[in-house]
Amino acid sequence: MHRKHVWIDSIVTIALAVTACIMLVPYLWMVLSSFKGNMDIISGSSGFWPKHPSLDGYRTVLQDAPFGTWLLNSAGTSAIITAATLFTSALAGYVFAKHQFRGKRIWFLLILATMMIPFQVIMIPTYLITAKLGLVNNLSAIILPNLVSSYGVFLAKQFIEEIPNDLLEAARIDGAGELRLMVRIIAPLILPMLSALGIFTFMNAWNNYLWPLIVLNDTEKMTVPLALVYFNGTHVVNYNVVMSAAVLITIPVIIVFLIFQKQFVKGLTMTGMK
Fold this sequence. Notes:
The chain is mostly helical. It contains 14 helices and no strands.
């Protein structure tokens, strides 16, 4: 039996290692291509590894475009969206998990229903509302539609339901109001879930491409994913420059994940899904 378990563990480990390598191939190709010349990529003459490594792609990204401004735009909008999503998700999740009110089940089902609707379905109505408010070509157009997350509300509710009611009642008996309950008791207990949700939200906001492409026209207002369009030529695509921009766009996301990876894993494993 012990030998059988060792064989099973070995097979699973090998399968996971092979899967991880396959998944990493596109990212490795992206990084290596950023050090190639454009004609080498187009012709495929250099193969997988760059024969004559060059930093020309990175120089073009950093010198010929306001990449620093785009970086600040993405960082600012992503941070605001993440903070707002965590706040609204925790607050709404607490209300749905621990309070009783008329129509509670219906309202929650409506929130869940919005998770099933693709963004492309509501894209035109959202754009028309944004245009009516005069927010087209403004960073607020990226932030406002993403202040609340139905998935975040669902995740927070599932997590907060696991908190014993006796603990909250004891705090109320001691004179704690709802605000103190949220700050002193609920927030520390759901911190792993908030960390996981925060990473998901930040990554989605940082990598958001379609909506900024629609509502932003001014070069100075662009976010970093739009750099992939900016560096595309009319007749020829500068693949080495695009790959260099893609590498620079990916680095902040990797850094955020590495910093919060323990909280991220803990949040996923502790979240109750009843």
